[in-house]
Amino acid sequence: MKFGTKVIHAGVHPDPSTGAIMTPIYQTSTYVQDAPGKHKGFEYARSQNPTRKVLEENVAALENGRYGICFASGLAAMDAVVKTLKTGDEVLAVNDLYGGSYRLLRRVYEQFGIESRFVDMTKADELEAYITNKTKILWVETPTNPMLNVVDIAAIAKIAKARRIKLVVDNTFASPFLQTPLNLGADVVLHSATKYLGGHSDVVMGVLVTKSKALADKFYFIQNASGAVPGPQDCFLVLRGIKTLHLRVQRSCENAKAIANFLIKHPRVSKVYYPGFKDHPSHKVAKKQMRAFGGMVSFDFKSNSFATAKKVLRRTKLFSLAESLGGVESLIGHPASMTHASIPKEERMKVGLTDSLIRLSVGVEDVQDLIADLEQAMSKI
Length: 381
Ligand SMILES: *Cc1c(COP(=O)(O)O)cnc(C)c1O
Prior knowledge:
Aspartate Aminotransferase, domain 1; five-stranded mixed sheet; seven-stranded mixed sheet
């Protein structure tokens, strides 16, 4: 099956009891057993839920994996991955990581003796020097947030395999429509389904996908034992959102490209971070690894001042000032004070995340309207 068919059909079957074409929301906490221990594969809804199961099979197929495991949020999914480690183990993560992922590693897991270090993984050949015999997970996010650097997944996977370290790729920013890390050698793919998978800004959820039975068993165990499961209605919403994933992401990518081209010509703009530009440091890797260059664009001002950025952030009308990304509607954000506020300023500045940097999540609206909105917001600044 090709991608556009999978989003609609993979794992989805008419409801056996009624023939309903859409997967029903099984809003139940438990299931009646025929005799003690004799059940239909469903015992208690933390352990199994039919709506969730269909979603898990669907996302597993989109990522070319064998097992999908859903969690109450993207961070709950990440939490389940880190819980497979023990005190003394170490995570080596990409340096401009999603703020919440950084916080989880630093503020939650360090106190249990699981250390994390953060390195520039766009230089795959330098990674080897940071690996110790404590390193158990390489944590990659690509494209990175909000600088939109692209990490060469296949190159990192080679190192991970040679050193017998698990490679986890947070594929939230790309979505499986643009890249499938398991095909490039990753062991686990993570999604904040809150973003492109759900796609309509109406649900918070996370998913892990893997080909490995051993890893899937660990994740299922933690899903049930720690209990951070999504509700059936949320599973329904994500399943429904996924049916148009390919259409939405394609349009977002087209719109983002047009907007990046508008911004680069703007007299007040100093930098546009967009991997589709030939002079972007990761352009070659992006071209090799991704089907298109994504729906995210970040940019900075010549003035380098927060005041300039603030003006623009207050003036846009179609771009809503909000955290998150990947929905049908366009969003504008200020990473330094919003998504990345929990990262120390010195750390931020190291990667170019200044106080004037603005990040756009480009939606699927008509692009002429989006450009006109930015144009008016950026006039007389
Ligand atoms: C949003 C996000 C997360 C966290 O997901 P939640 O669903 O908000 O818990 C993790 N990684 C990336 C790249 C994200 O954008």
